[in-house]
Amino acid sequence: MVVAIPDHLLPFNPPTEFFPLRPALPRSAPKGPHVSLTLTPARSVAALALAAVSAVTVGLAGAPTAGATEQDKAIVSDNRTIADIPVVSPIAAQAILLRDARVPIVVLGARLDEDCARPQVLDDRLDAATELSRTHLLNPVIVSGGATQTDCPTEAAAMESGLHERGVTNQVLIEDESDSTVANVQNTKSMISDRGGLAVVVTSSPHNVRALQNFRDAGIEAVAYVGGEG
């Protein structure tokens, strides 16, 4: 089935000077029936968000679906344009979490300061994760980061503590072995796959582009929610 959405219904159309586009790479068609959104590339994320929210409003009556299906991942994948800029979107992140309470919020760690304090870049990520968690209380939060300073707690432990300080009540899952972004991905892959293979990744700009590419290389579809820079 092909769903065509009129231009005037699309709420998000980023200016090309900030989001330069390049043609999407050819992708093989996903197996089985799927929904194809016939849109210009710059508006792909808005369509994804609109479609997801519509599904919740019309067909779900507030209850989560058995989301993160191949159709869900195909929508994210098939409508991607340049190196992940269209899937760095608070609109898409909120819509995906609303659609499926199993989708995890994955917070990527950052090296602690020498006095074991959380750096500003990590607190910014925790603030962003808290924003999502307060709206989506059923979605689990995965904190990922190992011991990167001598005699300090792991990044994951520092993040768990920071989330509790902020009043987050979601289930928090800890991955505390990683020492790089690639390791973050490798060590959270099974947790994400067990929950359907789709994730909202909380990180910083411009780190988000590389992080999402690492997740894709590992076979995980992800949408970024950016908190701060670094």
Automatic annotation (TrEMBL):
InterPro entries, alphabetized: Cell_Envelope_Assoc, DUF218, Rossmann-like_a/b/a_fold
Record-level GO cellular component terms: plasma membrane
Domain of life: Bacteria
Gene3D superfamilies linked: HUPs
CDD domains noted in UniProt: YdcF-like
Entries under Pfam families matching the protein: DUF218
Domain DUF218: 105-224
Protein name as catalogued: Putative secreted protein
UniProt lineage: Bacteria, Bacillati, Actinomycetota, Actinomycetes, Mycobacteriales
